[in-house]
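Researcher: Here's a chain I'd like modeled. Treat it as a single chain, no partners, no ligands.
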Amino acid sequence: MLRLSRVLLILDRVKLLDLAIKLKSPNLVVIAYHNVGHHNSYVQTFEEPIIPALIEKQILFLLGSGYIVTSLGEALSILAENPREKIAVITFDDGYKGVYKYAYPILRKHHIKATLYLTAGFIRHRVAPWWEQLYYIISRAEKEGKLHKLTELITQIRGNSWILHETQASCLKSWIESVVRAMDVHELRGLVNTLSETLDIKVPEDLYSTIMLDLNEIKDMVDYGFEVGGHGLWHVNLSILNNDRLTEEVKESLDFVRTLYKGIYTFAYPFGIYNDLVIEVVKSSGFKAAVTLDPHLNYLSTNIYMLGRIPPYKFNLKDIASFKYLLIKY
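Model: Modeled as a single isolated chain. C-alpha cells:
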C-alpha cells in the first residue's frame, strides 16, 4: 500500500492522473464527506475529520477538469436536460459542525452548493450520534483505566465475540461500527445507558452542541442554496428492521427534510446499507433518488436509487493524488 501511494504521488507530479481523468466518459461523481476539521482540534470525534485544505484542492481540481460541482438535486436536473455533462456532487453525511465552520466558507468562496444528509431524530432531540456517544464512553474508560471492566461488561451484554482486550485499543472503532450496525434504536439507547451507568461515565449534555450542527447553521446553509436530504430517523441499519420500523425511519426522515428544504428530495442510506425492500420503501415514500457508499462513479445506466459515492481519499493517503485515483479507477 505504501508503494502504491508513492506511485500515485509520482504519477500526479507528472500530470498523468489528470490526463486519464480528462479521457474518461462523462459521468456523475458523488463524493461522500462526513466530518471536517483539523486533526489537532481539542474536540476528538469518532468520525475522523478531513482537513478543509484538501476539500478545497479537490473542488479546484474538479472545476479545472471541466466538472460542474453542485448538489445532487441540481445535478439530476442538469442531467435531465443534458446527459453528457460531467458533474461532481458534494455531500456531507450526519451533520457535523465542522461542515458549517470549515467547509461552508470554502464552498461559498467558490459559489458551490452541496447536499446535507441529516438524521431527523438526532437534530430534533439534540442527541449526539450513537457512535459518538459510545466513542466518548469508551475513550474515557480507556483513559481512566476501566477498559478491563468495560470488556467484562460487553461480554455479559453481547457474548464472547464482542470482547475487547486492553492490548487491542485500536479495535475500539471497529467494535463501535459493528455495534451500531447490529442494533435498533431502543437497543442502542439501552447500551449507551448501561455502559454509562456501570462505568460511571456520563455522556456530556453538550456533546451534541459541541460537535453537531444546530438548526440555525443548517438554515443558513439552506438559505444559501444547500439541499437537505434524508438520512433516516435514528440512523440505524434499515435492512434489519421490520416493515413498520423501516417505514417509520424513512417517512419520518422525509417529513423532517420537508420542514427545512423544498426541492428534489434525495436519501442517503445509513451506513450505506440497503436491500430491495429498503429501496422500495425509499422510492414509494417520495424520495426521488438515493445514494449508497458503494465506491463507483455513476453513468446513464446507473439505478438512481443505487447511486455510488466515492470517499475523499484512498489508502490513507490524504492527498489529491489518491482522490484522482478514485476518479480514474471507477
